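Action item from last meeting closed. Structure (90 res):
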């Protein structure tokens, strides 16, 4: 995912990776649009920790988009289109 987002490759939006906020390390963040992107494996299914984390980030004004590892690997174009739609809506 970083290869697709870095260096403003996605419509000139600037992303940072592995960003510490509060007590969390976020996978990817676009600060201009306050969008957090998390890439998750199966251990995150119905995770209470993720729900608590999302609540903290939402209270800070962030929107969170979660994608499964398999989707990123098998359908990167669809994931990027979804991210672009979320960025445009913010």
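Sequence:
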């Amino acid at each position: 995912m970083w290869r697709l987002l870095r260096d403003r490759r996605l419509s000139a939006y600037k992303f940072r990776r592995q960003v510490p906020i509060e007590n969390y390390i976020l996978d990817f963040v676009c600060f201009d649009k306050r969008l957090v992107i998390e890439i998750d494996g199966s251990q995150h299914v119905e995770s209470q920790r993720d729900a608590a984390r999302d609540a903290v980030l939402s209270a800070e004004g962030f929107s969170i988009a979660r994608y499964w590892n398999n989707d990123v690997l098998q359908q990167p174009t669809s994931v990027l289109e979804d991210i672009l739609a979320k960025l445009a809506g913010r």
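Note appended to the action item: The mean pLDDT is 91.
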